[in-house]
Write the structure tokens for this entry.
Amino acid sequence: MKKKKLKRFSKKFKHEDLNLFRDKLLKWSNKFTYSSFLNSNNYSSNIKQYECICAVELESEIPFTKNNSTQKLDNYLKKVDDWVFGYLNYDLKNEIENLKSNNPDNFNLPNLYFYQPKKIWIIKNDYVEALYLESNLIIEDWNTINSLNCKNENNPFNPPTLSQKLNKEQYLNKIDVLKNHINRGDVYEANFCFEWFSEHAKINPLYVYKNLNKISKSPMSVYFKNKKLHLICSSPERYLKRNNNKLISQPIKGTSRRDIDFVIDKKLKDNLSLDPKERSENIMIVDLVRNDMSRFSKPGSVKVKELCEVYPFKQVHQMISTIESKVDSSLKISKIIEGSFPMGSMTGAPKVKAMKIIDELEETKRGLYSGAIGFIDPYGNFDFNVVIRSLIYDSESKHLSFHVGSAITAKSKGVNEYDECLLKGKAMILSLT
């Protein structure tokens, strides 16, 4: 990949307590109308990544788009030649494939959105780096950030009352319909989701994010603000990462609870690792992701580096596979997105048919949920999570939403799938208290 001359002013700092600085950086970022706080929570991984990236203040942005969005992204990246931060909405699928969604939409978001920030802070290894468009502001902001007091945020609001779009009986009926599709051979796996929501929620988004991050520390955590929109995300899943000519995808399929008793916890982990249903779900999605990546990768370069590995997180054990490939240095990001989005773990297989069926069965549009959020650097490298385990909040309309879901196969039992959804939703519900 051709190296570009960085247009930003750079300054590196040492800090005796990087965890404390990260907390102060989060608090500082919250005062801006546009901010992205990407946090890996000190998660140990073989995949090189930043510990934290914080990007604030608007220099430029892509206008609202629901047509030709990936082409507009290519054009925007060429124009700014800089770091950008933003998201891919799940409904971008309707541009990529011949699909449409008629379900209610409570957020009316563009199909993708990216902005160029004025100020970026990066924590990596043992140092902090500032990347600014105006060099004279770096020291002033460094001093301001370090002067902040990071005592616990107060929550001035009572927990909002949450409602489910589907009750248990309605959910089980939908699963029966979906399994009929599977038994007919229409699909062999589909990820079915439903929404929890509050229409008049008053929350402190920063408090909720800090609370969620304490409950459910995840390596792809995000706190994102765009005017009235807030994304509070504790995702453990990576959609795609590009590092020079290498692409990495890490789909998750297979979930088990944790236990405070070490012996019981290890048994839960081992049982998940050996569970034939969970393994079959994961392998189906691995095949789908391999197929997606082969559309734009160099022939013969798509490799499964890890298959059905179980990783412990604070709330749950997750079964994760890792797929890697090589791509040509001139490959545009639009081709990568069009060939692989949305993440197969959030759709099903065959992918297009699964998306069509779940759109018909689900009650609301997913919006940001099941999409991806992250960054693209000036060299074309990027890292995006899958937006799961996330709350989405509109501070103007007061609409609060989160989705939960699971993969349905021929062997799925509706009651067990419902319980898995409740397990996944537990951290979001607790974060609001």
Observations:
- The chain has a mean pLDDT of 95.
- The radius of gyration is 21 Å.
- Residues 253 and 282 are 5 Å apart (CA to CA).
- The chain has eleven helices and 20 strands.
